[in-house]
Every structure is written in structure tokens, then in C-alpha cells.
């Protein structure tokens, strides 16, 4: 088969398409508009050193919306928190919050404590005695979750600034505003003395950051052994065998290009996470799989890789790269780079030891830390390739290239085809059956036009028509998926769609779970998703097993399962409150004690032991209550 310049160069379009997919995934999450804004005002024009100072936040909440009070009616509700960032060395402020209004909404039959309209929050603090005259910038942050009668948006943080003047001659100002703050607070100092329930992200201590970066490197390294990555990893081993036939320089070039692709994709994920985080949207590991458009895009990429492995088309190097790399068939720098991108995207539905800890730490911090942790994850995943690049002599231990590679190449294509079947399984939970059929027909059209282009030996016009057919089929497939509405943003009942198993799972209801725990019952929560490969492995090997089922039945544990296959902001907020930004996630509500959070890869023995220990603590608490 010839591989001249007229052959399709689809591989060189994939990096751009990957970037567009990640950008679209991030854009889909940037949907948490600010429904409240505030301004800061001081009670004097200037302050003497050592004097008391007050700063009021006049909060204006958009009509038709409300935010939870600082002390919500239920534990699962996100409190409104005002924080004033004072200069280093100044005493901590205390905040007086307004009295809440009790209102009833369609989504909750019980009255909720909320703020709406205009409210005033007052921060009081002492100006240090030794402070020098001048202007000191203060920054206030307001963390809140806005809701109307139909929906709740993801929590966001609004910010405002104020210059505080220190010096003589200060005069009182804004008296009415501060009088309103005192009146709204009901004169009670209880809330003023209460510490903020949720603080803004603080800089990470150097020690904890160093440990987290090490864990991130280990987590990224272990990702290479996860089932999601194995199809791509097998392709990379195949590519190394082929590169070894062209000498050490080709091995080094290929492994470095693969490492660059891995790092580039992790940087793209970090950028998307930072953008979504700054907009107050829910972020997490693997959340791009909640969007049917992204899953369909990945299916297109997988199908194209399959067709390439089955010899339907070859991907030639541009002339300049071919001259740079020498002659002979090889994957090329661009091919290695794209396979690195592809490996990372295929890895995101999987979790690994240390990965959840590193991700959770990063996404609770600011942009530089997020970027550093994602870079460490990328370095960890790229570490095997970097080691081969550093010691290219290890390539001599690989088998010699030969005719056997064509057979292996075909088998690799079928391995990737299995990944496409898995992607169709994910899509079946996100789109309607009609839309899924349309997406599958679109992919079939991609394969058909690729086959036709391969079969047409001559005729530039016919090859052009086939190429246009490939492009049109890809576009229609992606547009069908991106326009899909079936299941997106909707809570899906897992228990209604799954057959009864060893454990009688019920749909997750946070209010009911916390109510049962307060009543003395153990509640186990499993947050899962169809796209989470690790979740499915844990369900099969750990959760839905006779040992765990017997422990749940023996100790009267209520098993609840939450589905995060499609975007669900309440589940995202629930995870974030427990310091997690990815799944699998397992939690055990224990009466009279803090919930117990398990690792992403629990063992049967560890899970059963935790249930028995919690049941023993429950019996002790009940005896003490009597």
C-alpha cells in the first residue's frame, strides 16, 4: 500500500479536536452565574492604630433567588460564609450575620433558613496598635449557593475590595448601613462568634504540598496499570517495538513525544479545572465523561485508531518530518504525541491509589497548586516513557520487528474496538435510544467512507468524495451527541434500572440518610457512574459480594447508591464537602460520629470491619443514652 501525501492525515487533526473537546467540556461546566453581589464599606473614613473597626458587606441577591443562611436548616445545605482577608499579623475578624427568613420551596416541604433581597453582614476587628499610617487593601469573599424555587446552582465565591485608611481625623460614615446590620442580626452575638463554616482556599503548607506532589507522581505511575489505559498501553508497547527497529534515536524521539502528549493533556485538564473552579462550577476527575459530546468524540477517535490498525488508511508524516526522521515506515513524532494525549483521556474514568488524595488536595487550592499537582500526575504517568528515553538501551530487550507485527496490529485493533463498545455503554445512559442509534450509524458511516477511500486505488475525485464523506460523518456524529438532551443533568434512578442483586440498593437521598443516622441507623453511600471503570470493578469484586451483603444485613445497614453518570450538581457538592472531586466514593454514616470515608479501592475485609466497628459504637452510644 502506498502512503503518499494524498493519504488522509486524520492523526494531525486529533490534537486540535482533543483541545476543542476539553474546552467544550470546561465550557459546559461554566454555568454557575453570580446571583448575588456585594460591596464593602467601613464605618469610619480613617482609624487610629489600636482602635476598633467594622466593615459591612451589603449583599444584593437577585430577585427570585435566595441563598442559604450562615446556619442552614439542614446539614446537607451549603452555608453562606463571608470572609474578610486582613493584612498579615492583624487579629482575626468576627462576623455578624443577619437573621434568616424561614421560607418553604417546591423542592423541600420543610421551611428553610435563607437570605434574599438586600442583607448586611458586618465584620469587626481590632486595628493593631503598632500599625503605620497609610492605606491597607482588604479583600472580602462571599461563598454562597444560589437557589430559586426550581433549582440550585453550584456554589460560587464573589469578591470585593476596600482600602482601609489608618491615620488621624477619621469621621463616622454609613451609619444607616451599620444600624441595619445590627438590627438584622437581632443583637445576638452567637453568630458573630461562630467561626466560618467554609473558608476560602488557604495556601498549602510546603510540607503537605511536597507530599501531595509525591503522591501525584505515584498515582500517575499506577494509572498505567489501570484497565482504562491497557488498550493504549499495549499500542505503545507495539509502537516501541516498531521504533526499536530504527535505532536508539527513534526510541528516544518516540518516548519523549509520548511524554509530551501526556503532559499536554494533563495541562489541558488542569486549565479546564481551573476555569471551572474559578466560575464556581463542580469540578472533578473524569467529569468530562458526563457530557455525551465528549464520549462520542472519544468513540470517533477510537474507531479511527481501529481502522488505522486494520490497514484501512495510513498516516504519513509531512515531508519535513519525514526528512528529519529519515526514511522508512514509522509512527512519527505526531503519532507518538497523539497517543500520549489519547492515553490520558482514556485514563480519566479510572482512579488509582494516591490519585484521589492528590486530586482532592489540588482542587481545594488555587490555580498554581492545581497546575503543579496535575503536572506531577502527568510526570508520573509519563515516567515509564521518560525512563526508556533516559536509558534507550532497554529497547534491545524488546522482540525484533517482523511479520508477526501485522497480526498483533490487527489484534490491537479489536482490543480498541472493545473500548468503543464500552463507550457505547456509557452513551446508552446519557442519550435516548434513537440518538444512540444515530451516533452508531454515524460511526458506521465513518468506517464505510474510510473503507471506500482505501478501496479506490485511483481517481482523485472519488477519493475526495470519500474524504468529504468521512468529515461529514464525523461532524454529524458529534453534532448529534452534543445536541443530545436525554439524561443530561437529570438524576437517574439506578435501582429502578438494575436487577436485584445481593444488596438491596436504594437511590441516594441525603436528607433521608442523615435522618436515619440521627435515628441510630448505619447508612452506606456508594457514588458511582457508568463511565467509572474503577467503580464497576469495585462493585463486582468488593461491594456486591456475599461477605459485604451479610455484614450489611447483620448490622441493618441501609445501602444507598448515587449515580453521577450525568452531571448532577448536588452530588458534586456532596463530594466536595467531603474533600473529594472524583469517584468512586464510599461513605458510611455512623450515629453520633463523623461519617467514615473509605479509599477509592476498598477491600472486603476493611469494609466489613468498618461496618462492625460502627455497629459496636452505635450500641455503646445507645447504652449511654439509656
Quick rundown:
The protein folds into 3 domains: 36-193, Immunoglobulin-like (Sandwich), CATH 2.60.40; 204-288 and 314-408, no CATH class; 494-625, Glutaredoxin (3-Layer(aba) Sandwich), CATH 3.40.30.10. It is built from 20 helices and 16 strands. It has helices at residues 14-29, 175-184, 190-193, 206-223, 230-244, 248-278, 292-309, 319-325, 332-347, 355-363, 367-390, 404-427, 433-455, 460-482, 494-497, 510-518, 533-543, 546-554, 569-577, 604-625, and strands spanning 36-42, 52-61, 66-68, 81-85, 94-96, 101-105, 108-115, 118-126, 134-144, 146-147, 156-166, 506-507, 523-528, 558-563, 585-589, 596-597.
Describe the structure.
Helix content is 48%, strand content 15%. The chain has 626 residues and is α+β, with helices and mostly antiparallel strands. Strands 12-14-13-15-16 form a five-stranded mixed β-sheet, covered by helices on one side. It has a four-stranded antiparallel β-sheet with strand order 1-2-8-5. Helix 1 runs parallel beside helix 6 and helix 7 runs antiparallel to helix 12. The chain is globular. The chain starts with 13 loop residues before the first helix and ends with a helix. Mean pLDDT is 76; it is low at 1-17, 19-31, 186-207, 315-330, 486-490 and 620-626.
Mind summarizing the main beta sheet?
Answer: 5 strands, mixed
Q: Average pLDDT, to the nearest integer?
A: 76
Large-scale geometry: globular
What is the overall number of helices? 20
The largest sheet has its strands arranged as 12-14-13-15-16
> What percent of residues adopt helix (DSSP H or I)?
40-55%
N- to C-terminal distance = 84 Å
Low-pLDDT sequence parts: 1-17, 19-31, 186-207, 315-330, 486-490, 620-626
Q: Which band does the percent of strand residues land in?
A: 15-25%
Number of strands: 16
Query: Cα-atom Rg, whole angstroms?
Result: 29 Å
Q: Helix- and strand-based class?
A: alpha+beta
Task: Please give the domain count.
Answer: 3
